[in-house]
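Q: I have 452 residues here and want to know how they pack in 3D. Can you give me a structure?
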Amino acid sequence: MLNTSDIMETISMIRDNNLDIRTTTMGISLLDCADTDIDKSCTKVYDKICRLAGNLVATGDDIAAKYGIPIVNKRVSVTPISMLAGISGGDPVKYAKALDRAAHEIGVNFIGGYSALVQKGFSAGDLELIESIPRALAETELVCSSVNVGSTRAGINMDAVRLMGEKIRLAAELTKDNQCIGAAKLVVFCNAVEDNPFMAGAFHGVGEADHVLSVGVSGPGVVRSVLAAMPDDAPLDVVAETIKKTAFKITRVGQLVGSEAAARLNTQFGIVDLSLAPTPAVGDSVAHILEEIGLEQCGAHGTTAALAMLNDAVKKGGVMASSSVGGLSGAFIPVSEDAGMIDAAREGTLSIEKLEAMTAVCSVGLDMIVVPGDTPSEVISAIIADEAAIGMVNSKTTAVRLIPAIGLAEGEELNFGGLLGYGPVMKLRTKSPAKMIMRGGRIPAPLQSLKN
């Protein structure tokens, strides 16, 4: 039961500390939309999304008004489109355009699932979809794309890694007149999860129900505010316990919204993803939480340890609050979307090498990082391989979302606006990994994959 103190505390979190439901995401299976005629398949895709998610936005707005809890984004994720393309053949971009039309029709801000899972090799439709990704992202507005190139059980598909380096660069080139936005809507995974409600990596896994409603909750401002009220000499175990209790309260808000939204939409409630997802707004930064813990600036020595503690405490608090915690859950470190990360990158305290170390203990990986526009595709591929290796060996999800800023050099800035924010072009190593990348093949799965 809620008491007056609990209610007032939640109101304060929303009003003063940027607590929000970052996204309600409906996952929709498109397996029954498969057809050997691609045009018929696209029609089925459009119709099913509009039928099931047609009231998603209105329902979110109504619940937000009822409880006074901001629901920032409403989104849809679908079955990896490469599966449909493998059956229908034809130009996969037709599917991207069908998804985009449906997303515009129902009013969501993004739709994810223009995806392929190729960690162990390419099946029918995978190569065709991967080849089409840059064009699909350039010719649509709301479609997001992801490719899983590795896993702990399968190893790393280095042929796919090489291809994705090329496609990320091409996606940026095709949208260079629009802040290279194509690359910002494309993410490469190792150990991708099937119930992630966050973009750009959301897709509806084949093990999911026909349609489910999941929520992503975010409250970095709340966590920072609580830590700011603690004495500077509070021991770190006390700090971790405080974060855990705060994450519990945040998760309960997500549970409430997700359960009610699912019931209203006559769909199954999926998961609460408690990921401290920042925004460029002041007071909504994961980097500032780390600084509140005791770092002069994010990126200083000690950052990885502080982030590990934060991520673990968030997961523990979430699990206490809901039996449906899933997705990624933890702390995101997207550079261009986090005011504190942006400042640290500008000043040189935060380097891509430090970010790579941080990804070993956070939710995802190298996220929303702007790199020089002349970065060769094999360097992008090598960064993907490094991140995939961290995920593979540590049995965790890692990802890469790099944006080559075409025409810009180190120190200049790219500005996407809105939730995607802005960021400085970060320095990369210049020695070439081309020989390694061009070898292709597969990095075998590590010994710890043999768990059965």
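Q: Anything worth noting?
A: The two ends are 43 Å apart (CA to CA). The chain has 16 helices and 14 strands.
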